[in-house]
Write a structure and sequence with these properties.
By secondary structure, this protein is an all-alpha fold. The chain folds into 2 domains: 61 residues, no CATH class; 135 residues. 67% of the residues lie in helices and 3% in strands. The chain contains 7 helices and 2 strands. Strands 1-2 form a two-stranded antiparallel sheet. Helix 3 packs antiparallel against helix 4.
């Protein structure tokens, strides 16, 4: 993200500097005592000051057309700053939703124990699984909308979706094998949400695998929460 933002700012500064360069120094008014220079460094300085909307005022455009160009760059700089802040502020809620889903799966595993969803009342379990399906769908949308969030790796497994998503698969399988109609439906919903997530990981981030389980194994391995499987030599 820092590289992208830096590239935006750097290209904008250089592009506008090339517009100013042919008009230096005659096209600008210099404050008394400020040396008049016509090199590229001077053009970059004027461009940086204008883009950042600092506007020291010791060098200002004199020609009417240059004044319009400088004003346009200032507006562009304000838009760049706004876009940068908005991008950052939108990224962290997406990360929080992913971490929250991982925490919910861990809490479910600890509370339900080895029996899983079968230890709960079927209607209660169905409601929980439908809620988890909605959370998984939100994570899929976040990955499509904010691709950069994929590359944020969690240090602790408790907050890492790659380390816990296989448990969601286990819950979906158990629910679909239930005799309760509502629980089976919730299991199918969760399974469909997981299939969509696997499709996003396969299509957008290149994880191999023809099944969702294989994709999630690759996902966990890429995020360093699972060791590579030893090849079968038998």
């Amino acid at each position: 993200m820092a590289a992208v933002i830096g590239a935006w700012a750097g290209l904008a500064v250089m592009g506008w500097a090339l517009l100013y360069l042919p008009h230096l120094p005659d096209g600008f008014v210099y404050e008394s005592g400020v040396p008049q220079r016509g090199d590229f460094v001077e053009a970059v300085y004027i461009s940086m000051v204008t883009l950042s909307t600092v506007g020291y005022g010791e060098i200002v455009a004199g020609h009417p057309l240059l004044r319009l160009v400088a004003a346009s760059q200032a507006v562009t700089g304000f838009g760049l700053l706004t876009a940068t802040v908005s991008w950052i502020l939108q990224t962290y809620p997406a990360l929080s939703r992913r971490r929250a889903l991982a925490h919910r799966l861990n809490l479910f595993r600890e509370a339900a124990g080895p029996e899983g969803a079968s230890s709960l009342d079927p209607r209660h379990a169905a409601g929980l699984l439908e809620s988890l399906a909605g959370n998984v769908a939100s994570v899929s949308i976040d990955l499509l909308s904010f691709h950069e969030t994929y590359y944020f790796h969690e240090v602790e497994q408790r907050g890492s979706l790659p380390a816990t998503v296989t448990y969601a698969q286990q819950l979906a399988s158990e629910a679909q094998a239930s005799e309760n109609k509502e629980l089976r439906f919730a299991g199918r919903m969760l399974d469909a949400a997981l299939e969509d997530l696997a499709a996003v990981l396969r299509g957008k981030f290149g994880h191999p695998g023809t099944t969702s389980s294989a994709v999630f194994d690759s996902y966990a391995l890429h995020h360093r929460h699972r060791q590579p499987r030893e090849p079968n030599t038998k």
